[in-house]
Amino acid sequence: MKKTRASESLRGLLKQIKEQLKAAGIDNPVSSAELIIAEALGIQRPQIYLQPERKPSPSQLRKIRNWARERARRKPFEYIVGKAWFREIELLVTPEVLVPRPETELLVEQALKLIRADAQIQKILDLGTGSGAIILSLAHELKKYPRQIQFFASDLSKPALKLAMKNASRLGLKSKINFQPGHLFQPFPRRKFNLIICNPPYIPTNELPKLMPEVAKYEPRIALDGRKDGIHLIRQLLAQAPAYLVPAGYLLLEIGKGQAAKVKNLSSPHLHLQKLAKDYSNIDRIALFQLRLCGLADSKQKS
Q1: Global pTM value
Q2: Does residue 44 form part of some domain?
Q3: What is the pLDDT of residues 62-87, one digit of tens each?
Q4: Domain that holds residue 202
Q5: How far apart are CA 178 and CA 71, in angstroms?
Q6: Vertex 103, ends 154 and 184: CA angle to 5°?
């Protein structure tokens, strides 16, 4: 009996779960075990070590063990607890949407730099919004910005859009963002924007089975599959975006590893690749395009 109770202390649980997750092939099993225990108990991770002999209540213990089993099956922690943390905000997440990535935080960072540097930016569109991570981060971080900015977002997936709207409500931002269902620009046929942002699916189809189980087994394929070469949707965006940008407007995209050269070589008479920004692993991850005014003028003359 004493042995059983000892195994139910935070110290004992941490050791058990660490071994369970390590055997399942989880990277950083200690960190994952800490997250499971801390989230189940509603405490900060350091408190596990400050109260090592603390014993969770029976309901907390069931939750910890259930979550550990799910994580050992390689289910993402964010789907297990139903939420994710992105920059300054907490988001509800389900398997209908991607788990927000640190790389996408860089996309928001680049967008904020652009907004603060260009006083003309007033209308911003987030395509394929998913959980709403990008547009909600921008709206949240620009709440007190002196310039009036309008926010728009679309998604082909109705469950994803519903979740993004729920996240907007939880953050007090629902009235600030115009959410619309539909593919890419379809919901906004007559609007033009100063800045269009998108984290498109960019994984080549044949690479999907090689991804970590957390991604390959659980995350929505529609948000990952970039078709044969990974840049199918990026081609569409470069072709369609000029019609929805104001003069000198911007298109900001997240791209996959090794895709910078392909993106540079894409033919786009109207969009100029202005910048490539690297991620934390020194990989070209963010591509910034700007509308060529001369390109548009030439196009109008030819038509």
Answers
A1: 0.90
A2: yes
A3: 999 999 999 999 999 999 999 999 99
A4: 84-302
A5: 36
A6: 20
